[in-house]
Amino acid sequence: VQLQASGGGLVQPGGSLRLSCAASGLTFGSYAMGWHRQAPGKEREWVASISSGGTTYYKDSVKGRFTISRDNAKNTVYLQMNSLKPEDTAVYYCAARRGMQGNYEYWGQGTQVTVSS
Question: How far apart are the C-alpha atoms of 75 and 87, rounded to whole Å?
Fold first, then answer.
């Protein structure tokens, strides 16, 4: 199983980025997908997730700014990030698991998002 995250970069506060995570080696449509992030000196935290059926969940601090979506035909999950803040700076990781409970089974390599003027 491989999860390949991309789309990170440097953006000014208030800007937008769209992260992508392409999955291979698993039955993508059967897996719930999630985005997590880890800022320097902090523990990794959950950001958003989407069930196999398309139900979405968000960390309170990103509600209304971030949108998670999936394209099962492309085996890809996305994270659209708008109104970015400096505190969103982190390495973002995608992950996959069966169902909406329990540990994530598979993790991608991460993509750096830096929000700075």
Answer: 29
